[in-house]
Every structure is written in structure tokens, then in C-alpha cells.
Design a protein that fits this description.
This protein has 470 residues and is an alpha+beta fold. The chain contains 15 helices and 12 strands. The structure holds zinc ion (2 copies). The site of one zinc ion has 8 residues, from loops.
Length: 470
């Protein structure tokens, strides 16, 4: 295989890896017609700006054990200023050493640890003037006795002193100083004219490391400042343009870099699944809004649609959350399906899932109300003496059992209408919508309405016919 054939093969493999796990189509459903290579010469500008700063911090209490003690604030300040001057003086040398240490141009990024040797934390502590290091101030109402002539001192509540505020009751104050270093790095690519998808993909390259993953990078220029290093690199990226024919349409897919990385799959998956989507939308249009039984056309269209896994994932996103749909299409699918396809697919599959669930839930609902609920009521009636005072609770419990039973039955019925894989996908789409909750609420209200009158009639009859208590 020569270099071009390897690139074509790589692009082909990337398309297969997108299409096969996501859809019901396989590699035989598209073919590569022709290809064309070009070389893209890019220039990368990298700039690191280093800044030092002294941080001072004052706090209550004695100096922490990890800080080195100096005699006074003044001593701390002048020592830290010396440290800063040393760091600034050594910086150019360190920047050169970092640059030369990088065996290849793609070495580690410049970090603070390359720029200085942190001197550690210095500080000084002073005893609090106000309380002379005791942390307490004598109560001036009772002069520290805690009592006054007329009884306990109310000002200090009999303690005799109050905590010293300026030192936070610790008796000491301290100041700490540290030398901090920050590196601000900028990276920018200069791109010649190229295909849009390649341009967008390369514009997302934010580090030298990412560029060198695409192609070998060579240093062109380096310049050092007092607190700055600027480097310029050059890389030549092969760009392959591949014409793919799928679903009767022609796509132009680009791969960039020595691995022929595809940044955008140009809606290939969306196009392959377009027919399934249109059939589902059509079936939804012709199906009644409130179907009372299984509709063969809707079942068939939904079954075919969900046999492509990507449609299940899309169906779990609420299409009204535009940002989530866009993020999914652009980042997760890398353009294999367009945002437009994702929005339409999410709408259609969620609507279809709700509608087929409804067609499956009506029979369990009716049965629950006609058979299951009275059965529960009769069961409760046999225990009525025990439950008389808890009749509403017992009714609610019976209704909940009825609702849970009806939902399980409806989901089981629905599952039997599709093959196992599609059925579990449909179930997951349903769970991500509000459909089940809407039906649970409707079922519960209906079941309570059906149960309660029965319960009260039974309680009343038992009261009437039961043995009278004195
Ligand atoms: Zn104090
Ligand atoms: Zn007092």
C-alpha cells in the first residue's frame, strides 16, 4: 500500500467505524469512488508569558509549622523581594534550558515548575498588643472578678473576661509570604486555504502536542524575552479528499494528517437513515392521534427506525433542549448526522414511542378498572373490620397495585410487538420521556375513582348487617 492508499483506507475505516455500530447499514452500503491528496503547510505560533508575584497573607494565631520564621514583617518582605529578584534573574536561563531539554519539538508544555525553584513560605509572628498574648481581655465592668456588688456580672456572664477580637482569641497574629509563578500559554495555527471541515477541525487544535499527533512538526524559530519564550513551528499535513457514494448520494469526506483523521463525517449516517426517518414521520402523520390498538404501519416504521442504535441515543435527548442536541451531533457523532437530522429524529421517535405505548396501555387500563380493582376491593372487604378506619389508605393501595400491574402488562405487550433488541431500545426511549408518568397519573386517578365508591359501599353494608355493639 502506498501513502495515498493508506490514507484512503484510514478514512474508509473511520466511516465504517461510525456507520456500522450506529445504524442497520454495513460497509457494503457505501463505496469509495475516487480520492485526491493535497499537502497543507501550516505554521504554528506558540507563546508563553511567565509572571511572578508575591502573595502576602495575614491571619490570627501562631505561625504554621510549615512556614519558615523570620524576625519581623520587614525581614519577610525584604527576603521575599530577594527571592523574586533571583527568580527573575534566573528565568531566561531556565527558559532556554526548558527549550533545549525538549528532545522533540512536541515535548512537555512549559509549566511553572520549569520557571523557578519555589523558595517556600516565609512568615513572622507577633504577640497581640491588646491581650498581651493571652487571647483574653479582662472585663472592665467587673474588673475580671465575674461578679459585681449586685450579683453576677451580666456583661461577661460571670466569666471575668471576654475573648480578644483582634487576634481571634489566639493571642498571636502572623503574616505569611509566598512567591507564585504563572505561565500563560497561547497557541495559534496559521492555515492556508483548505476545505471547511478541515479548517474547523484544525481550528480546534489548541496545543503543539495535538498538532504533532497529526503530522511531524519542525521548529522554525525561537526567541526569548525576559519573561517570555516564543516559538514558531512548521508542519506539512497531508489532506485527503475522498468521494463516497452512500444511499444514492455523493459525499466528500476529508481526512487530515498522517493518520487521515476525519473531523466531520458530512451527515453520512443522517443521509443513510433519512429514508427510515421519512417513513416514520409519514406513519405518524397517517396514524390516529389516540390509537386504541396496534397499528401495523407505525410498528413497522418504528421497528426499522430503532434497529439503528444511533436513533435510540438521539431519542433519549429532549429535542427542545437545542444545545444538548447540537452537542450530541457535533461532538459525539462528529457530524455523522446533522443537527437537523438529530432534531427531527428525536421528535419523531419520541412521538412514535408515546403513541405505540398508548395503543398498548388501553387494554390493561380497562381490565384494571373492570376486573383487577374490584378484586382488590373484595379482598379488602374480607378484612374490612380490620381496615374500616383505613379505608381510604386501603383504596389507594389497591389503586397503586392496579396501576403498577397495568403498566407492567402494557410494557410487556409492547415488547412482544417488536424484536428483543428494538423492544429494549424502545423501552429506554420511553423512559426518557414523560409518557409513562402521564399514564401513571391518569391510571391512578381512574383507579382511585373506581375503587373509592366500592369501598365506602362495602364499609356501609358491613356496618348495617354486622353485629351491633352496645
Ligand atoms: Zn489579642
Ligand atoms: Zn464582667
Amino acid at each position: 500500500m502506498n501513502a495515498t492508499e493508506m490514507l484512503v483506507d484510514s478514512v474508509h475505516r473511520q466511516i465504517v467505524a461510525k456507520v456500522e455500530p450506529m445504524t442497520r447499514f454495513d460497509r457494503s452500503s457505501f463505496r469509495i469512488e475516487s480520492s485526491q491528496t493535497a499537502a497543507l503547510a501550516v505554521v504554528a505560533h506558540e507563546r508563553h508569558d511567565v509572571a511572578f508575584r508575591l502573595e502576602f497573607e495575614a491571619a490570627n494565631g501562631k505561625l504554621p509549622s510549615d512556614a519558615k520564621a523570620l524576625s519581623s514583617d520587614e525581614a519577610v518582605r525584604s527576603h521575599m523581594e530577594d527571592c523574586l529578584a533571583t527568580a527573575e534573574e534566573e528565568l531566561p536561563q531556565r527558559l532556554r534550558a526548558w527549550h533545549e531539554d525538549q528532545a522533540s519539538a512536541s515535548g512537555s508544555p512549559l509549566l511553572a515548575l520549569h520557571c523557578y525553584r519555589p523558595p517556600g513560605t516565609y512568615g513572622s509572628q507577633t504577640r497581640c498588643d491588646k491581650c498581651a498574648g493571652t487571647g483574653k481581655i479582662e472585663c472592665h465592668w467587673c474588673r475580671g472578678r465575674g461578679r459585681r456588688d449586685d450579683g453576677m456580672c451580666n456583661y461577661c456572664m460571670g466569666v471575668g473576661d471576654s475573648g480578644c477580637d483582634p487576634c481571634g482569641k489566639t493571642g498571636y497574629r502572623h503574616r505569611l509570604a509566598r512567591l507564585r509563578c504563572t505561565v500563560e500559554s497561547k497557541f495559534r495555527l496559521e492555515l492556508p486555504e483548505t476545505a471547511d471541515s478541515v479548517r474547523r477541525g484544525l481550528q480546534a487544535v489548541a496545543k503543539l502536542q495535538q498538532l504533532s499527533d497529526l503530522a511531524p512538526v519542525g521548529l522554525r524559530e525561537v526567541s526569548f524575552g525576559a519573561a517570555r519564550v516564543e516559538r514558531e513551528f512548521r508542519a506539512t499535513l497531508p489532506v485527503i479528499q475522498v468521494d463516497v457514494v452512500a444511499a444514492g448520494e455523493r459525499f466528500v469526506v476529508h481526512g487530515a494528517g498522517v493518520q487521515g483523521r476525519v473531523f466531520d463525517f458530512e451527515n453520512i449516517v443522517g443521509k443513510l437513515l433519512q429514508g427510515d426517518l421519512e417513513r416514520l414521520e409519514q406513519a405518524l402523520k397517517t396514524a390516529p392521534r389516540w390509537p386504541s390498538r396496534a397499528l401495523a404501519a407505525l410498528d413497522a416504521a418504528l421497528g426499522a427506525f430503532l434497529s439503528s442504535g444511533v436513533n435510540e441515543s438521539i431519542g433519549q435527548i429532549d429535542p427542545r433542549k437545542t444545545a444538548a442536541v447540537e452537542a450530541y451531533a457535533r461532538n459525539r457523532l462528529r457530524g455523522a448526522a446533522s443537527v437537523d437530522y438529530a432534531v427531527r429524529a428525536a421528535r419523531a421517535v419520541r412521538a412514535a414511542a408515546s403513541r405505540v405505548y398508548q395503543s398498548a396501555v388501553l387494554l390493561p387500563l380497562a381490565t384494571t378498572l373492570i376486573v383487577l380493582v374490584p378484586c382488590c376491593v373484595l379482598l379488602i372487604a374480607s378484612l374490612v373490620d380490620m381496615l374500616k378506619h383505613a379505608a381510604p389508605l386501603a383504596g389507594l393501595a389497591a389503586a397503586c397495585v392496579g396501576v403498577a400491574g397495568a403498566e407492567l402488562w402494557a410494557r410487556f405487550r409492547l415488547g412482544r410487538r417488536f424484536d428483543a433488541e428494538v423492544a429494549s431500545r424502545l423501552d429506554r426511549v420511553l423512559l426518557s420521556t414523560w409518557t409513562l408518568w402521564a399514564w401513571r397519573a391518569a391510571l391512578l386517578i381512574a383507579a382511585i375513582a373506581a375503587v373509592m365508591p366500592w369501598l365506602y359501599v362495602i364499609v356501609f353494608l358491613v356496618d348495617l348487617t354486622g353485629p351491633r355493639r352496645p
